[in-house]
Amino acid sequence: MCAALKPVLYGYFRSSCSWRVRIAFALKGIEYDQFPVNLIKDGGQQLTDQYRKINPMQQVPAVCIDGITISQSLAIIQYIEETRPSGPHLLPQDPKKRAQVRVICDLITSGIQPLQNLHVLQKVGEGKAEWAKYFIERGFQALEQILVQSAGQYCVGDEISMADICLVPQVYNAARFKVDMTPFPTIKKINDTLLEVEAFKASHPSCQPDTPPDLQS
After folding, report:
1. pLDDT of res. 1
2. Using an 8 Å Cβ cutoff, are 167 and 190 in contact?
3. Buried b vs exposed e over 38-52: b needs ≥16 C-beta within 10 Å?
4. For residues 167 and 189, is the Cβ–Cβ distance under 8 A?
5. Whole-number pLDDT of residue 106
6. Half-sphere exposure of residue 26: CA atoms within 13 angstroms, side-chain side
7. Pairing between strand 8-11 and 33-36?
8. Distance of CA 121 to CAs 28, 132, 133, 135, 143, Å?
9. For this UniProt entry, what is the primary localization, expressed as one broad class (predicted)?
10. Of 130, 148, 138, which Cα lies nearest the Cα of 188?
11. Is 11 in a helix, a strand, or coil?
């Protein structure tokens, strides 16, 4: 049983999945505590028996909230949306726009990010940077086409949604793997706009409690 008074986020500063949840909390104005899980130190703190009890998949994030523990970032974000109606809606009210948001979220969270996460890259071994870059570029080619049709100021129209929450951390990953953003002007423009929003600034990997000093902003 999870009995914390405030939500507790188990995450890692550079985890894009953890960052999604931090953005959602920030947009909703929800106070929470962070419990860092270092994915590198000691061979990976997510692999301990203690953490396995929190998340059997031994991944981040996991969130302790309202007496339950939820893993998987989109499940966490949708729970926040459904139980915390104050603040901006993270899913549009219009069913067609809601479907567009979900398409973008699934493209990123199923079609791009899992192929370049830490565990996969460790298995790939030599050539892992080229592997990650290839799959990010492949996904961005599709995403750019979708956003040309759906975007306004943000991914779907002019309201921030779950799609934007997924987009920014993935563009951050693209920069880590030296993806040239020139062929993806719509993605770049939306990302640049979102990085000026306070919730995205406050949740950025460069300013988390577990951010190494040399990477802090």
Report:
1. 58
2. yes
3. ebeeeebbbeeeebe
4. no
5. 98
6. 19
7. parallel
8. 33, 8, 11, 12, 22
9. cytoplasm
10. 148
11. strand
Tokens 């981040």, residue? 60
- Number of C-beta neighbours around residue 195 at 10 A: 13
The angle at the Cα of 74, spanning 4 to 151, to the nearest 5 degrees, equals 135
pLDDT the model gives residue 101: 98
Chunked mean pLDDT (size 10), the chain, 217 residues: 84 97 98 96 94 96 97 97 93 97 98 94 94 98 98 98 98 97 98 98 97 85
Tokens read off for 151: 């975007």
Q: Give 35's strand partners.
A: 10
In one-letter notation, the amino acid at residue 185 is P
Domains of the chain (ranges; CATH) run: 8-85 (3.40.30.10), 95-200 (1.20.1050.10)
Which is nearest to 19 in space by CA: 179, 143, 200?
Answer: 200
Task: Find out whether 147 and 153 touch, Cβ atoms under 8 Å.
Answer: no
Q: Is the pTM of this model over 0.85?
A: yes
* 89 half-sphere exposure, CB direction, 13 A CA radius: 10
